[in-house]
Design goal:
nucleotide-binding, 5-stranded parallel sheet, Pyr_OxRdtase_I_AS, FAD/NAD(P)-binding domain, 9-stranded mixed sheet, Enolase-like, domain 1, FAD/NAD-bd_sf, single chain, about 20% strand, 14 helices, flavoprotein
């Protein structure tokens, strides 16, 4: 589950991070138009699944939370890792072997760089071990349970199914086994391609100098890719059993009868889907005045009607969980709720468990940033639009980059991957600026939610400032043949655009396989394709992709001629 999204609305060097449930915001910096051939659209690369491929699809993201002090060195057996210059031990050293570090390392080897990656815990970082990968395994189970439990849905197909049940340990094992498999494949892919895996806590000693364990190495360029950890607000006591973070919840050690989830962003929503499918009652605690505050308001309203109201979920909005005490001596978990504005005590909840889903914090302590005069901003490493690290005096630190959750630009695994690949392009002589507004996000509930670009309020704010009009087009899954064949007609797709020139400003989808459907829109934004061009694309019938086809066709663009879209904006 990746988790928090934030883009800078000011200068490229400004770190801007919103609440964990906030969506991608806009950036106004101007950059050179990207060559579509240079764009990389990133996921776990095929090598992660044991497949050899030269396809330029990558991965990346956060590094470990706790790091072992040991200092072992695994030298890759193949000669594919290029020879470094005589001045340095390596051309590129990456601190953090999460999905982000992995993607950057593999791309670097492809570019002929002598590359090493340092990891103090386990390869795969948050995404593989404590995030995207195991959570999707649990959500796969919850999706099947929902379908089997929905008697009306099954009868509509003419199917009769006995009461569905589950084995908690087997469900937990499914998530753990998947994480182990992907972690092993990531390690093997780096070793087979010639990346040196260095084990130990990595820190920066000075310019182009890194220490791991008791060993010091030099590198022409260094990438920080240390990721993030769960953020726990003050006053909350986490015991790992009854008061837990997402790290603990993914182990699924027990299914509480009643669980409070603090935060209604991506993490909270996905876990509510899992817990309610497995029989729990859920209470959301949200500091803002509405649930799912980071989503497009119209999408959020529909999602609440489908994902929350019919299920065993209640909620408290406009309140902080000021104090949470774990269950002890036969007493339940207690949660003190205070008014978000007045700070007065409003209520006290007694529940079986509490999940803290208030977002993630960068893991940047102990990196030795003081040795190069770098000061973090709320824990984030300040970077410019090219991921180059900025020191305390506002100057760029030569040959030092930071990607992924550690820089706070967009806390998503695939965003970190794209950033890492962009950095490698730069250090190998090709200028590259990533357009963060083209990076999609998804919430893997049932049905799913996905989005790319601006929400409608963000687009209207931008339009007012810059003096243009916006248009909004919508289509319904109820009009899609494939969705109706699956009896999954609940859902909409929404397009926000400029009628004067056909520029796509944002796309939001709620419905079956929304996470897969969003990529046609995100790729269109990345490549600068306008609506008047993409509306002529042909989609197979009957498929869910026709939802997006109809969405683009529904837009009323005044411009009749095709022309390149405005230059992509880098956050």
């Amino acid at each position: 589950m990746q988790f928090s999204i934030s883009l800078s609305l000011s200068s490229p060097s400004t770190i801007c991070r919103s609440d964990s449930s906030s969506p991608a915001a806009a950036s106004n910096g101007n950059v050179n138009l990207l060559n579509p051939r240079s764009l990389r659209f990133c996921g776990l690369r095929r090598e992660a699944f044991g497949l050899n491929s030269s396809i330029s699809m990558r991965r990346i993201e956060s590094s470990s939370v706790t790091r072992r002090p040991c200092s072992n060195r695994i030298l890759a057996s193949l000669s594919g890792n290029g020879a470094p210059s005589k001045e340095f031990d390596y051309d590129l050293v990456i601190i953090g072997a999460g999905v982000g570090g992995h993607g950057a390392a593999l791309h670097a080897v492809e570019k002929g760089l002598k590359t090493a990656i340092i990891e103090g815990d386990v390869v795969g970082g948050t995404c593989v071990n404590r995030g995207c990968v195991p959570s999707k395994a649990l959500l796969a189970v919850s999706g099947r349970m929902r379908e089997l439990q929905n008697e009306h849905h099954m009868k509509s197909f003419g199917l009769q199914v006995a009461a569905a049940g589950y084995d908690r340990q087997a469900v937990a094992d499914h998530a753990n086994n998947l994480a182990s498999k992907i972690r092993s494949n990531l390690t093997n892919s780096m070793k087979s391609l010639g990346v040196d895996i260095l084990t130990g806590f990595g820190s920066i000693l000075g310019p182009q100098k890194v220490k791991y364990g008791d060993t010091v190495i030099t590198a022409k360029d260094i990438i920080i890719a240390t990721g993030s950890v769960p953020m726990v607000p003050k006053g909350i006591e986490v015991d790992g059993k009854t008061v837990i973070t997402s790290d603990h919840a993914l182990k699924l050690e027990f299914i509480p009868q009643w669980i409070a989830i603090v935060g209604s962003g991506y993490i909270g929503l996905e876990f509510s889907d899992v817990y309610t499918a497995l029989g729990s009652e859920v209470t959301f605690v949200e500091a803002l005045d509405q649930l799912m505050p980071g989503f497009d308001p119209e999408i959020g309203k529909l999602a609440q009607r489908v994902l929350i109201n019919p299920r065993k979920i209640d909620y408290h909005t406009g309140v902080f969980a000021s104090k949470i005490t774990p269950a002890k001596d036969g007493k339940p978990v207690t949660i003190e709720l205070i008014d978000a504005k007045t700070k007065e005590l409003k209520d006290t909840l007694e529940v079986d468990a509490a999940l803290i889903a208030t977002g993630r914090a960068p893991f940047t302590q102990g990196l030795g940033l003081e040795n190069i005069n770098v000061q973090t901003q709320r824990g984030f490493v300040p970077v410019d639009s090219r991921m180059r690290v900025i020191d305390a005096s506002g100057e760029l630190v030569p040959h030092l980059y930071c990607i992924g959750d550690a820089n706070g630009k967009m806390m998503l695994a695939h965003a970190a991957s794209a950033q890492g690949i962009s950095v490698v392009e730069q250090v190998t002589g090709k200028d590259h600026v990533l357009n963060h507004l083209s990076i999609p996000a998804a919430c893997f509930t049932h049905p799913e939610i996905s989005m790319v670009g601006l929400t409608e309020p963000q687009a209207r704010e931008k339009a007012e400032k810059e003096g243009f009009e916006i248009g909004v087009a919508k289509t319904s899954f109820k009009a899609n043949t494939k969705a109706l064949a699956e009896n999954e007609g609940e859902g909409i797709a929404k397009l926000i655009y400029r009628p004067d020139n056909g520029e796509i400003l944002g796309v939001h989808i709620f419905g079956m396989h929304a996470a897969d459907l969003i990529h046609e829109a995100s790729n269109a934004i990345a490549m600068g394709t306008r609506i008047q061009d993409i509306k002529y694309a042909v989609h197979a019938h009957p498929t869910l992709s026709e939802v997006i086809d109809e969405l683009f066709k529904a837009a009323k663009v005044k411009a009749n001629t095709s022309s390149p879209a405005a230059e992509p904006v880098a956050a």
